[in-house]
Amino acid sequence: MSEKGKGFIAEFKEFALKGSVVDLAVGVIIGAAFQTIVNSLVNDIIMPFISAIFKVNFESWKWVLKEAVLDADGVTVLKEAISVNYGTFIGTIINFIILALVIFLMVKAINKARSLKKTDEPEEEPEAEPEPTAEEVLLTEIRDLLKEKK
C-alpha cells in the first residue's frame, strides 16, 4: 500500500476514534431509541386522548386523489387508492413538538446541573509569578548597570 493510502487510513482512524465522534455516535443511537419511545407515547397514548376529546381520528383525515380499483366482486384491490394523508402529518407534527419539548427540557436540566456544579467548586486563584532565580536577578542587575553607563 502506498504512503498516501496509509496516511488516509491513519487520518481516518484518528478521526473515528476521537472522543467527540464517538460521543456523537452514542448520542445519535440514544436519540433514535428515544424517538421510538416518543413515537409510541404520541401514537399510543396522546393521540387516542386527543381523538376522544375532539371525537375525530386524525389517521382517517385524508384527501383522496384517486379511489382504489376493486375487482368485480369488490373484494380484491387491483390498484391502491392515492391520497394525501394530512391527518398523519398532523400526528407527526405533534410528535415533533413533543420530542422538541422533551429535548429542550433535558438540555435545560443538564445546563442547570452544570451551573450548580460550577458554583459548588471553589474558584482557583491564579498562581503568583514564581520568584526569580539568583541567575535572573544577577542578569537583571547587569542589564540595569549597562543602561546606566550609556
Please bin the fraction of helical residues. 55-70%
Give the number of domains: 1
Beta-strand residue percentage: 5-15%
The CATH architecture is Orthogonal Bundle
Give the CATH superfamily: Large-conductance mechanosensitive channel, MscL, domain 1
Termini gap: 66 Å
List how many beta strands DSSP finds. Answer: 4
- CATH class term: Mainly Alpha
Mean pLDDT: 81
Helix and strand content put the structural class at mainly alpha
Spell out the helices and strands N to C.
Answer: HHEEEEHH
Largest sheet, in brief, is: 2 strands, antiparallel
pLDDT < 50 runs, ≥5 residues: none
Structure description:
The two termini are 66 Å apart. A hairpin with a 6-residue loop joins strand 2 and strand 3 (77-79). This protein has helices at 3-16, 19-54, 86-120, 134-149, and strands at 63-66, 69-70, 77-79, 82-84. The relative contact order is 0.07. The chain is built from 4 helices and 4 strands; from the N terminus they run H-H-E-E-E-E-H-H. It is mostly helical and 150 residues long. The protein has one domain: Large-conductance mechanosensitive channel, MscL, domain 1 (Non-ribosomal Peptide Synthetase Peptidyl Carrier Protein, Chain A, Orthogonal Bundle).
